[in-house]
UniProtKB/TrEMBL annotation:
SMART domains: ALAD. It catalyses: 2 5-aminolevulinate = porphobilinogen + 2 H2O + H(+). The lineage of its organism: Eukaryota, Fungi, Dikarya, Basidiomycota, Agaricomycotina. This is Delta-aminolevulinic acid dehydratase. Keywords: Heme biosynthesis, Lyase, Metal-binding, Porphyrin biosynthesis, Zinc. One of its GO terms (molecular function) is zinc ion binding. InterPro entries: ALAD, ALAD_AS, Aldolase_TIM. Zn(2+) binds at residues 121, 123, 131. SUPFAM superfamilies: Aldolase. GO terms for biological process: protoporphyrinogen IX biosynthetic process. Belongs to the ALAD family.
Length: 326
């Protein structure tokens, strides 16, 4: 056998196997997505997302306290309002008494070391369920959408959030949010994590159950990327980096590892995030329940594949488990 044929000598020991990894998983790589609803006492299981709940603001201490003890370092908040009056411009998104702003204030007070991010979108708050404002014919009206989304982001910043994460996919919103943050005095205080390459995926179903955010009509294909659109994703990543995004995100993760890799190449000086979305999480649970693989082994394999592709931050519902496992 030729010398160049032999690879196994380099990974015959657990330690030498670990040296083959360019970057390893750490607890700080995990950001935990949290659903906040407007009943302050809520603790409601979400049937399609094993182990996940909708939480009320008054339950956050008992829910997150033990996780912070175990090393939880960041969360991202999603508002799930049920009792608000939704309208065409998503007014409840930045209601000072709405669940997201109350949760930001509460978490900052409860856990000073916790990095608090907030998803920024309008779909949970508009009566039509779309992520922006609409023209009369039902198409997206870009300019006022972007203006409104930036306004919401700035109001989350004023409530004390560390990071705003626009998931709406409206053209120009990263630049508008960055401008808004700078003009309001938060340019050096708040991180902008852009959902840059967010694909129109069939893996969002459990999230829509959890958040009640399915659109009233049509779908989101005019603003979320077509799954096969590698070129568009690369353009969106470069655009958002140029418009002032501090972190570039790819969503979902597992079917889009090549896009994570592209992001790491195109925006290699930025942290690269990926969102292991609700459907990916549910799929891993379903496969494990069906005996296809071991849950923990598969959770590691998928998360490690994301890091291998170039991710430095993983938004995952497995975060509490990884705090145990790592
Ligand atoms: Zn949305």
């Amino acid at each position: 056998m030729d010398i160049s044929s032999i690879l196994q000598g380099g990974y015959q020991h657990p330690l030498s196997r670990s040296w083959q990894t360019r970057r390893t998983l750490t607890k700080s790589m995990f950001m935990y997505p949290i659903f906040i609803t407007d009943d302050p006492e809520a603790s409601v299981p979400i049937a399609t997302l094993p182990g996940q709940r909708r939480w009320g603001v008054n339950k956050l201490e008992e829910f997150l306290g033990p996780l912070v003890q175990k090393g939880l370092q960041s969360v991202i908040l999603f508002g799930v309002p049920f009792s608000c009056v939704k309208d065409m411009r998503g007014s409840p998104a930045d209601d000072p008494h709405g669940p997201v702003i109350l949760a930001i204030r509460k978490l900052r007070a409860l856990f000073p070391s916790l990095f608090v991010a907030a998803d920024v979108c309008l779909c949970e708050y508009t009566d039509h369920g779309h992520c922006g404002l609409l023209n009369l014919d039902g198409t997206i009206n870009t300019a006022p959408s972007v203006e409104r989304i930036a306004e919401v982001a700035v109001n989350y910043a004023k409530a004390g959030v560390h990071c705003v994460a626009p998931s709406d996919m409206m053209d120009g919103r990263v630049k508008a949010i960055k401008r808004g943050l700078i003009d309001a005095g938060f340019g050096n205080k708040v991180t902008l994590m852009s959902y840059s390459a967010k694909f129109a995926s069939s893996l969002y179903g459990p999230f829509r159950d959890a958040a009640g955010s399915a659109p009233a009509f049509g779908d989101r294909k005019c603003y979320q990327l077509p799954p096969a659109a590698k070129g568009l994703a690369r353009r969106a990543i470069q655009r958002d980096a140029a418009e002032g995004a501090d972190i570039i995100m790819v969503k979902p993760s597992l079917p889009y590892l090549d896009i994570i890799s592209d992001a790491a190449e195109l925006a290699g000086d930025h942290p690269i995030a990926c969102y292991q979305v609700s459907g990916e999480f549910a799929m891993i649970h379903a496969g494990a329940a069906a005996g296809v693989y071991d849950l923990r082994t598969m959770a590691f394999e998928t998360a490690e594949s994301m890091v291998r592709a170039g991710a430095t931050l993983i938004l995952s519902y497995f975060t509490p488990e990884f705090l145990e496992w790592l």
